[in-house]
Known about the structure:
The protein is of the alpha/beta class and 355 residues long. The chain has two domains: 29-261, Aspartate Aminotransferase, domain 2, CATH 3.40.640.10; 265-354, Aspartate Aminotransferase, domain 1 (Alpha-Beta Complex). It contains 14 helices and 13 strands. It has a seven-stranded mixed beta sheet, sandwiched between helices. Strand 9 (287-288) and strand 10 form a beta hairpin. The protein binds pyridoxal-5'-phosphate. The site of pyridoxal-5'-phosphate has 12 residues, from helix 3.
Amino acid sequence: MSYAPAPRDPKLPPIRINLLSDTQTRPTQAMREAMARADVGDEQIGDDPTVNLLCERVAALLGKEAAVFMPSGTMCNVAATLAHCRPGDEILAQATAHIIAREGGAHAALGGFQITQLQGDDGQFTLDTFRAALRPPTRYQPPQTLVSVEQTANIGGGTIWKQDVLVGVADLAKANGLITHMDGARLLNACVATGISARDMASGWDSVWIDFSKGLGTPIGAVMAGSRDFIDQVWRWKQRLGGAMRQAGVCAAACVYALDHHVDRLADDHANARTLARGLAQIAGMQVQQPETNLVFFDPAGAGVSGEKLVAALGQRGILLATMDGRIRACTHLDVTAAMIDETIVTVREIMRAA
Ligand SMILES: *Cc1c(COP(=O)(O)O)cnc(C)c1O
């Protein structure tokens, strides 16, 4: 049994339009030049000026005391729960959350935590659902220690948690002694889409992180922010997990560049996602979830072609995407132009008509 992804069939044409994920972005020439120019030092001993600048920038952006540079978003989530919780603790999250479905069971394997799956639409849960899951502490039930939300909710369709729900969940968590954690892999997509600042969205959340290797377009990196004390504890876990780095300023420079040049343009990705959804929805029987950010989930089954078949037919034509939890997910990003979106719509239409 191999866990490796199947290699792409060499007989397929080269990928012309890559809608697989916003992780597929390639660093731009200008980003590479910023990386090449970076001032560097030893990150592990706090001596890399570019990493330090990035952490100060993100801490300020998110309205927190301190921040730490991490190799990946997954390591942010894992180090956060390890720092916040103790073995046997209960974490509450929506059932499709990345920490449950996409992190190899890390929170159970490394932390000994159990995660309660809260139900709800679009990758989110309501305040009432959260309230109903809370219970007074007893000797025989696991301690409910932490509640986690994903902004935006990935498998939920890239949906945006409403500000009043975020505030309500955080307030109720605090009133019940729970720690609050925000997986902000695509937080800045939510901010650009709503005009609400990252500081306001993260307010009330003890730990929050943003991914730079998704829509922001860097080759690597995520930054997590919180109180100085929390970040100290995360540093301990970063070291233990092997995430402490050396001349990481080369990578941090890409992130600083992305903060300066790749945040506002997320609006272009959102516009492209809306155009794609509109075009797909014109095909009879096609089910399309209205995108709120840069992810478009759709299901062609009602139009007579299975998701797998459509993905395969698009692959034959150099358009890359994939099914995810039963639907197709198309992801717009830095390397996807409006013309590519138009071509994708035309191609899907042709495939559906031929079927
Ligand atoms: C991608 C993603 C992660 C993990 O980030 P990596 O940088 O890929 O490790 C965590 N949460 C959500 C919601 C994500 O989309």
